[in-house]
Each structure stands twice: as C-alpha cells, then as structure tokens.
Specification:
By secondary structure, this protein is α+β, with helices and mostly antiparallel strands. Helix content is about 15%, strand content about 45%. The chain contains one helix and nine strands. The strands form two sheets. The chain has a five-stranded mixed beta sheet, with no helix packed on it. It has a four-stranded antiparallel beta sheet with strand order 3-4-9-8, with no helix packed on it.
Length: about 140
C-alpha cells in the first residue's frame, strides 16, 4: 500500500525550496565580491549624490593616472567607470592570504537614480578621487487646455 503524505510535509518541502531560492538570490545580488579575477579588476568605492539640478558621482581610484580613466554611458540610468592602475595589486597586498589573483584595473557600473544629460557631463580627478557631475534632464512642459 502507498502511504499518503501529509499536507504539512508537502508545505515543509515547498518552504525549504523557497528558502533555497531566496538564499541563492540574496547571495547573487547582494553578497558578491568586489573583484573579478577573470577580468583582473577591482570594484572601487563609489557614491551617488542627487540634488535638484545635478547628480554627482564620486569614485575612489587610487594608483590611477587621469589619462587611463574611461567613463562610458551604458544606458539612460547606468554609467561605467574603468581605469588602469599604475601598479598591479594582488590579494596579499590586500591582506588576503588564502586566495591568489592579481588586479590591474578598476571597473564598476554605477546606477543613476534620475535621468541625466550625459552630453553635458564634467569629470574632475584629484588626489585619487574621481568626481563626475551630470546635469539632470529637464522635464517636458505640459500644456493645460
């Protein structure tokens, strides 16, 4: 004879599956490393500040020459910053002894919270800090009938 499974057993199995999926998604999107060994790149620290007329993005890029910095627009709400370092950094320089790898680039994608006009953007690099000023797009005028 076949034994029937309890509804509680079925619910427990589904809950375990959901927990595994949620854990995997959390690990994938929130808890990712700040390096890419295959691309030999580190993700720099960055900050996005929004005011009424502009968006200011700052990125920490130590050991970088200004002529090696590239800023590109990926989409309306995403820019990419890449920069080649003057010297290569390995995990041991960062205090990590259980991994191997070497880094020669900084690379990050910065999501922009509001629409900006990238054609009028200005960038300044001073003492290892990159500051990008992006003017906000002006809205369209709505005619009242």
């Amino acid at each position: 004879m076949r034994s029937r499974r309890s509804i509680f057993d079925i619910m427990r199995e589904h809950m375990e599956e959901l927990e595994e999926i949620a854990e995997e998604m959390f690990d994938r999107f929130l808890e990712r490393p700040s390096w890419d060994i295959n691309a030999h790149s580190l993700e720099p620290l960055f900050d996005v500040s929004v005011s009424s007329d502009k968006v200011i993005v700052t990125a920490d890029l130590p050991k970088v020459d200004p002529e090696n910095i590239r800023i590109s627009r990926i989409s309306d709400d995403l820019i990419e910053i890449t920069a080649k370092m003057r010297v290569k950094i390995n995990f041991e320089d960062l205090g990590v002894t259980h991994r191997k790898g070497e880094f020669s680039y900084f690379s990050c994608r910065v999501p922009l919270p509001v629409p900006v006009d990238t054609s009028r953007a200005k960038a300044r690099f001073k003492r290892g800090i990159l500051e990008i000023t992006l003017p906000r797009k002006r809205g369209y005028e709505i005619k009242v009938e």
